[in-house]
Amino acid sequence: MKAVLISNPGNIELVERDIPEIKSRDEVLLKVRLAGICGSDMHIYHGTSPVATYPRIIGHEFVGEVVEKGKEVKNLKIGDKVVVEPIIYCGKCYPCRKGRPNVCENLKVMGVHVDGGFQEYVVVKDANVHKFADYLSWEEAVMIEPFTIAAQATWRGGVEKDDFVLIIGAGPIGLTILQYAKYKGAICIVSDIVDFRLEKALELGADYAIKASENIEKEIRKITGGMGVNIAIDAACTPKTFEMAVNVVSQAGRVVVLGFDTSPSSIPQFNITKGELTICGSRLQTNKFKEVIDVFNKRKLNPTALISHKFHFTEIKEAINLLEEGNQNVFKVILEF
Ligand SMILES: NC(=O)c1ccc[n+]([C@@H]2O[C@H](COP(=O)([O-])OP(=O)(O)OC[C@H]3O[C@@H](n4cnc5c(N)ncnc54)[C@H](O)[C@@H]3O)[C@@H](O)[C@H]2O)c1
Ligand SMILES: [Zn+2]
Ligand SMILES: [Zn+2]
Questions:
Q1: Are residues 8 and 122 both part of a single domain?
Q2: Does 179 share its domain with 269?
Q3: φ and ψ at 94, to 5 degrees?
Q4: Which of 34, 114, 146, 177 is the most buried (most CB within 10 A)?
Q5: Residue 233 falls within a domain, yes or no?
Q6: Is 81 in the pocket of ligand 1 (CB under 6 A)?
Q7: Full strand arrangement of the beta sheet holding 56-57
Q8: Which residue's C-alpha comes closest to atom 43 of ligand 1?
Q9: Average pLDDT score, the chain
């Protein structure tokens, strides 16, 4: 079989590998069907991921079919359509004991710290595998993992019906968050610097789409009758957008950050104290697969609207080149296996 390997930063290649074998009773062998390319895969390719190790078979957004299973695997059968939850945690450290295994001290993410899903076959523990309804297409299902990020971010921000939510950045992550916040009944304002992406946000249900500018804080105060948004979710992830997010939330508001930028933002403590703001990070997801699969099975979202391009996995270099061009009409790029 073939696999997509990043041997070291800047070097991506197709390599020949043996089909992996089941070694313990709780493992399953999957035939990978579709996988999504994520911003973090691009970081691993560029050598700018602070956590990845090399050589690495990348890919953490993937779906496939069960083709073989270990003796103790009871809840899955051959032919089941499944999505992989790509996190491996210790279960013992403080965050694990607190029910937050996504930030385990010994966290390993498939495709980042250990080999991932950009290969024709993969062996995973049954605990990492979730079944979805047969009637969902592979294209719909490959978006389950990105939507778990949105489920997490809206949960961290405590998004509820009729809350005003600002989503900064209308890239694939911002637009999944938009859809999930709308599903939860929020009033959503999306900002971006690119008109095309704002149009996409409106198509996907945004109540307001505003161009990021110096006046954005005023515009947000106007829309919310002076109150500010109850939750600001920063999916543009720059030091400046984080500062802006803190400035536009209401009293008792929440700010959710998703970025990996290491440069500092300048944020005075007064606003945080005055409004008792909550500022929190959101990373990957905690127990969100079942919830998101349920929403997908009920077809409450429009996941395929975010898929803009599809390649065969042997065309990985073409797919990477397309993403490198930074074209504004490129959203989620998926690979067929
Ligand atoms: N924490 C997590 O679990 C997690 C998971 C996946 C991705 N991420 C992060 O989420 C971020 C977004 O991912 P993506 O794939 O959507 O990226 P993307 O680059 O496609 O989207 C970012 C969007 O922000 C817009 N933008 C840039 N500056 C802006 C500004 N000043 N105001 C408003 N919008 C602005 C861009 O035009 C773009 O549309 C990345 O930084 C990524 O690392 C975090
Ligand atoms: Zn991803
Ligand atoms: Zn742990």
A1: yes
A2: yes
A3: -55, -55
A4: 177
A5: yes
A6: no
A7: 11-16, 2-8, 56-57
A8: 259
A9: 97
| Per-residue pLDDT tens over the stretch 145-203 | 999 999 999 999 999 999 999 999 999 999 999 999 999 999 999 999 999 999 999 99
What separation in Å is there between the alpha carbon of 97 and the centre of ligand 3? 7
Q: What angle do CA 322, 323, 325 make, to 5 degrees?
A: 70
Claim to verify: residue 156 and residue 271 sit in the same structural domain? yes
C-alpha 334 to ligand 3 mean position (Å): 31
**What pLDDT sits at residue 50?**
87
Nearest ligand to the C-alpha of residue 149? 1
- Residue 182: which CATH number? 3.40.50.720
- Diameter over CA atoms, the chain: 62
List, in sequence order, every residue forming a beta bridge with 211; answer none if it has no partner.
192
Banded pLDDT at 54 (limits 50, 70, 90): very high
Give the domain range for residue 232: 148-281
Residue spans of alpha helices (H) in the chain: 39-46, 94-97, 138-141, 144-156, 172-183, 195-203, 216-223, 239-247, 269-274, 289-297, 316-324
Is the per-residue pLDDT at 261 higher than 90?
no
**pLDDT value of position 136:** 98
Asked whether residue 60 falls in the same domain as residue 165, the answer is: no
Q: How confident is the model over 67-96, as pLDDT tens digits?
A: 999 999 999 999 999 999 999 999 999 999
- The rounded distance, in Å, linking the Cα atoms of 205 and 292 is 19
Is 99 within a domain? yes
Claim to verify: residue 274 and residue 308 sit in the same structural domain: no
Atom of ligand 1 nearest to the CA of 173: 16
- CATH number, position 29: 3.90.180.10
